From TrEMBL:
The keyword Transferase applies. Residues 104-223 form the Phospholipid/glycerol acyltransferase domain. Keywords: Acyltransferase, Transferase. GO terms for molecular function: acyltransferase activity. It comes from Streptomyces litchfieldiae. This is Lysophospholipid acyltransferase family protein. It comes from the Bacteria.
């Protein structure tokens, strides 16, 4: 990987790998989340004690990106699952389009002022994929500059949005998720909801071509309305060194209560994969091909968003 050409993806551009030593003992096999959900209080307590024992004895693994699968499955997914199942009541379609094994790049729209959509997509893949796969999200530089958020993001399997890291994960056979709109998508005003922003220079397409993995377009409806962004305080954004400072009907007027997302009804639609294996080795250096594939992915996501919006009965039901 030392000779790989780095192309920025999304908002990031620097290599962001965590350097943590992984314990030598492999993590023991655990049951799928679906099995645990129906196991009752006794089984939940048994899983909890087993988790504590693994943490105390060091019987868990952390990869060289900082990903802690044991902590993610037993704690982070457990905390996020009620938001997925009960609060946003997310319907997932097209999970059969995500391969059962091997690398794949899931490309999604990005919205909602705060990145709940990325986290919910991670839960969707973990809980709804028949092969119990994990999604490794590419995140912007800002995520890794925030105290606590930095550590949690790495533990959850996120890494800096640069092509070198993404390609290495894909070549290892991982599912990688990217939201190429970056802050332009997540911080756009409510009046521009569900209108995709620019997808950058096609870095995610070049990475998929080099790793020879399929690109899976993903469209998420429901996240745009959780924090209707009606204004942006540029002065506060500059003072706090943020890309934007959102003004919504509830934030900052209601204080911490204003940060509670609205309980909208979500749909996540995963489209048919776009294969890259038939492309020649030099395809990643062809700017016209990258532009065409980038435009194809973007148009697929936008068209699916329109179809989902037309079929939606209500924002909240």
């Amino acid at each position: 990987m030392a000779d790989a050409k780095v192309i920025p993806i999304g908002e990031g551009g620097r290599r962001g790998r965590a350097r943590e030593e992984a314990p030598a003992d492999p993590a023991p096999e655990r049951e799928a989340p679906a099995e645990a959900a129906g196991g009752g209080l006794d089984q939940a307590l048994a899983r909890g004690f087993a988790f504590l024992r693994r943490r105390l004895t060091g019987a868990y693994e952390i990869d060289d990106f900082g990903y802690d699968q044991d902590l993610t499955d037993e704690v982070l997914m457990t905390l996020l699952r009620p938001m997925f199942d009960k609060y946003f009541r997310i319907e997932v379609r097209g999970m059969e389009n995500v391969p059962d094994e091997g690398g794949a790049l899931i490309v999604s729209n990005h919205s909602g002022t705060l990145p709940w959509d990325g986290l919910m997509l991670q839960v969707a893949v973990r809980d709804r994929h028949p092969a119990d796969r994990h999604l490794r999200l590419l995140a912007a530089d800002l995520v890794f500059q925030l105290p606590l958020i930095n550590e949690l993001a790495r533990k959850a399997g996120h890494t800096l949005a640069c092509a070198e890291d993404a390609q290495e994960l894909l070549e290892r056979g991982e599912l990688v998720g990217v939201m190429p709109e970056g802050f332009k998508g997540i911080g756009k005003p409510f009046s521009e909801r569900y209108k995709l922003q620019r997808f950058g220079r096609g870095g995610f397409v070049a990475t998929a071509l080099r790793a020879r993995v399929p690109i899976v377009p993903c469209s998420i409806v429901g996240a745009e309305e959780i924090y209707p962004m009606v204004g942006n305080s540029r002065v506060l954004a500059r003072v706090l060194n943020l890309p934007y400072f959102p003004l919504t009907p509830t934030f900052p007027w209601l204080g911490p209560l204003g940060a509670v997302p609205l309980p909208t009804k979500w749909t996540i639609q995963l489209g048919e994969p776009i294969e890259t294996r038939d492309q020649p080795p030099e395809a990643a250096e062809d700017p016209m091909l990258m532009f065409q594939l980038t435009d194809q992915v973007r148009e697929t996501i936008q068209h699916t968003l329109y179809k989902l919006l037309v079929a939606r009965r209500s924002v909240f039901f």
